[in-house]
Structures are given as structure tokens and as C-alpha cells.
Amino acid sequence: MRATARVCQSHAESWGSRVPEHQTTEQPRRRQARGERRIAQLLEAAAQVFCTTGYTAASTNAIAREAGVSPGTLYQFFPNKEAIAIELGDRLMQTMRTTYGEALAPVDPATPLEEAVGAAVDRFIDFNCAHPAFFALMHGPDIPGRIGEEHDALHATLLTRIEALLSSFLPSAPPAELTRTAHMCLGLYKAGLELVLAHEGAEREAYVQELKNALVRYLAPLAGDRTGPDSGSRD
């Protein structure tokens, strides 16, 4: 009798400890997927709060409220506001790197200046309009140190890419002139971007065109005959 009981007990323990393989892999995967969805939800809420109030005035309570969760739920994923901003900034900068890689790709030597400028500006404007939190985080008065460092590195890489693009339009320009021109182009773009993001609809489109016009008119005397027949149009 005891032997039979031991066999039954051993059999039960064997089944109890033998979790089907598909469950051991699927359950962590489901938990991970739920966690990723929650993180995405919190980051989306943080982006909205940072755009509305700025980074300094934002709080974890406001982010949790925007996400529709309790502060306790937020703290399961992020210890503080800075951690949220850093994660959001990392993801946005990765997207930004992809954007400028496409926007500042080498152009055909025969491409008119206004066409190259227009294509690059459109790419960057599309990114910033789709992700306004990027501007709010990167140009705020009190951004976390790590974000500032990564933005400085991104800024330096961006300038290098602009110089490379400009070199096809200004083949005889010395390196110092190319660097100075790249800084001016980026400065003009950033100033125009602030105006673009402050408007919507047709007025936003008008400011986008003004930004393109300003860049083309600045570069045209340097590029010589690389401008097309409609250079500087105000349509």
C-alpha cells in the first residue's frame, strides 16, 4: 500500500514539475510583450506632457495621469522622471539618426540646389512634426545631462553630414568655409523649425516654404549655377 502511494506521489510530483515547454516560453514572452506595451504607453504620455509643460515642470504624477495608470504602475518601469526622459530621448534620437541618414544622403551631381534643400528640409520637418517631444527635450532649459551629451554627439555628426552634402555644391570651398556654412545652415533650420512647430495647417506650410527659401537664398551665391530656374520661389 505504501509502495503504491509512493509511486502515485512520485507520478504526481513528476507531472507537477513537468511544465509543458510551450508554456515556459510563451508566458515570459507574453509578460514581456505586456511590459513593452506599457512602456510605450508611458513614453507616449511623457511625450505629450513634455510638449505641454516642458521637461522641468513635468512630473511623474502628470505622466501617469496622462497614461491612465497609477503612479505605482509607472514606478514599476521607471524610477523617476529623468529615467523616462532618457528612454524617450534615446528612442527619438535613434529615429532621428535614421532620418538624417536619409535626408542627408549623397545627391546626384546634377541635382538643383533647391531640390536638394527642399528634400532635406521636408525629411527633418516631417520628423519634428511627428515627434514634437524631440524639440521640447533637446531645446529645453533643464534637460537631463545624458540627453544633453547624446544630443551634442548627434549635433556633431549632423554637422559632418551637412558638410559632406554641401561639398558636392561647393567643391572648391576650403574646409573652414564648409564648416562655417554647415553651422549657418543648421542654425537657420533650427530657427525656422521653432516657427514651423508654432503653427499648423496652411500657415505651417507657408513657414516651411519660407525656411526653404531662406536656405536656398543663403546658399545660392555660394553654389553658383547649381540653382534651378525656380530658385527662391514663394509659391
Automatic annotation (TrEMBL):
Stretches assigned to the HTH tetR-type domain: 36-96
Spans annotated as Disordered: 1-34
DNA-binding region location: 59-78
Composition bias type Basic and acidic residues, residue spans: 19-34
Keyword set includes DNA-binding: yes
Matches recorded under InterPro entries: DNA-bd_HTH_TetR-type_CS, Homeodomain-like_sf, HTH-type_TetR-like_transc_reg, HTH_TetR, TetR_C_22
Keyword set, alphabetical order: DNA-binding
Domain of life (superkingdom): Bacteria
One protein family per Pfam: TetR_N
PANTHER family: HTH-TYPE TRANSCRIPTIONAL REGULATOR RUTR, TRANSCRIPTIONAL REGULATORY PROTEIN
Entry protein name: TetR family transcriptional regulator
Species of the source: Streptomyces actuosus
